[in-house]
Amino acid sequence: MDTRNKEFVEDIIHYIPTYYKENVQANILANDVIQLIGNSNHYSLPAIKHKDNQDHSHHVLCSCAYTNLYITPETRLLPCISMTASSLQDRFPLVTELGLQKALEDPFYVEHISMKEKEFLEKNEECKNCAYLKYCGTGCRANALLENEQSFLSVDKKQCILWKEGYVERIKKVADEAIETYYKK
User: Fold this and answer.
1) Which of 54, 12, 15, 38 is nearest to 162 (CA)?
2) Weakest mean pLDDT among 2-16, 22-36, 47-61, 160-174
3) 31: alpha, beta or left, given left = phi > 0 and alpha = psi -120 to 50?
4) Assessment of whether the complete model's pTM goes beyond 0.70
């Protein structure tokens, strides 16, 4: 994660108390950093894909991409909106050419939404040997693709920084303190 991304994470961390102090009613999803849930003392951390030590190797890499789909304005079927304008976008099927059912069966699309963690880890030694894998679950494939325009299978560097540099714990601490201080029941 470059300096620009670190600055973004820092800005979000600094914003969290303001969100609760101002009693914002809107939900905010801050790009894999935190999801703040309006009028609530709850939040979620997208960086935490797994909360237990069980074997997740047979889970799909992204349950969101597996259960939802995104169709671009040009009708290209993508695993998620974050893959828009990626180097792979033009390889995904066009719904207007194939129809939705055939597009959903397109091998390239199916490979990207149904890949299991085990398959991914066979191709990515860095993630396979990481102490944080049990929490991050390989990170976000769209983020990885944005970091390395050629590989959906590369490391999600943003997740690495969030975990290895202690941002996840810091974000939790700031959010919990802000809720304790400002949340009105």
Assistant:
1) 12
2) 47-61
3) left
4) yes
